[in-house]
Amino acid sequence: MTAKNDRRWNHNIHYHPRILHTVPDGARHALDVGCGEGMLARELRRAVPHVTGIDLHAPSIDQARAHPDDVDYLLGDVLTHPFEPASFDVVASVATLHHMDAATGLTRMRDLLRPGGVLAIVGLARSTMPGDLPRDLAGIVAGAFHRAAKGHWEHPSPTVWPPPVTYRQMRAVAAEILPGSRYRRHLLLRYSITWRKPQD
User: Fold this and answer.
1) Which residues in the chain come in under a pLDDT of 50?
2) What are the two backbone dihedrals, phi and then psi, of residue 108, each rounded to the nearest 5 degrees?
């Protein structure tokens, strides 16, 4: 990753280390769902020999392919691309799940994992007022401090706002489709889901 990338910051990049820390020992194949211009995919490539990034946004994929790396970038839809089932040791996704039906997306990512593989997601959900207001205000203040210190990089990919699913709904969907998964709500207006697929 270049020095320019090292200086980038936004709410999504802030949580990349959470994804990277979940990579299991011996992982050989990783998939970055909604890879955009490939920043997380390139970070994954430092730990995993074979990394595939997939995204529906052609300009972002063009930017990703312009980098001198050996990540396999695909223009396509993870829900319909003909990946072999159970073909990845790591499936990662940042700020992508709210672009699709949450249950459908989680099921697809689950099915692409090999037994023992790890699914790691950082996502956006919709706040419920007034209950989420104190947490959201704290996140806005913390985000402002981060931006003042680090700047803010605006990604080139399309955005969806507001997210269609609330934090509470997302927790329930994850619990249903990924039994035993770990769901966490984070300060900077994000949640994470981590799940290891049971061995056969």
Assistant:
1) 1-5
2) -65, -45
Whether 159 is covered by a domain: the verdict is: yes
Please give the tally of structural domains in the chain.
Answer: 1
Which of 179, 163, 166, 43 is CA-nearest to residue 119?
179
Structure tokens at 70: 């050996």
> In sequence order, what DSSP letters do the residues of 72-93 get, joined into one string?
EEEES-TTTS-PPTT-EEEEEE
Joined together, the tokens standing for residue 91 give 């499936």
Cβ atoms of 42 and 34 within 8 Å: the answer is no
The residue to which tokens 């249903």 are assigned: 176
Cis upstream peptide for 17 (omega within 30°): no
Q: How far apart are CA 123 and CA 167, in angstroms?
A: 10
- Predicted confidence at residue 153, as pLDDT, reads 67
Report CA-CA distances (Å) from 27 to 22, 45, 81, 117, 188: 11, 11, 22, 8, 29
Residue listed under structure tokens 């003042």: 148
- Full domain range(s) for residue 23: 3-126+155-196
